[in-house]
Predict the structure.
Amino acid sequence: MSDAPGATAPAAMPIGVVTVSDRAFRGIYADQGGPGIEAALARILATPWRAVRRLVPDERSAIEAALRELADAEGCPLIVTTGGTGPAPRDVTPEATEAVCERMLPGFGELMRAVSLRAVPTAILSRQAAGTRGRSLIVNLPGKPSAIAECLDAVFPAIPYCIDLIGGPRLDTDPAACVAFRPKGA
């Protein structure tokens, strides 16, 4: 950024934050997942960013529509969801994610489950997924705020380089919170 007169600050990168919850959507309780994602991103990211929020019910069509809009219309290089990743009949976030993605990245879910398994044996029930749609990376996280931070901390070192590889904008992390991996020269 330049200190020259008339110089403008770089635009904040849009990052999609999607909470999938019937009860939060109906106003039965406050959304805790979306703010949990935003708090984790505020700690991790050095790149200026802004949250583009969506709160949707546990309905596959609503989730798919939100993901498409954030990727295609809003141009979010990163879209992070919370909720709807369990085995209950209405937990359909992974199916919606797979339906809108061109490529799935199973390593994200594998790592998140492995990290969560250290804390709770029910982590094997979680179905977090990740994939790409155009120049957007979509990552499904669990709904519990402590698990959100735990899972984001585990996978975020790979996220900036993934976004590089799919042609998205450069995303930098605060090395005090997260050291992103990029090959030398990248």
Summary: The CA atoms of residues 107 and 130 lie 8 Å apart. The longest helix spans residues 60-73. The beta strands are 13-20, 49-56, 78-82, 103-104, 130-133, 136-141.
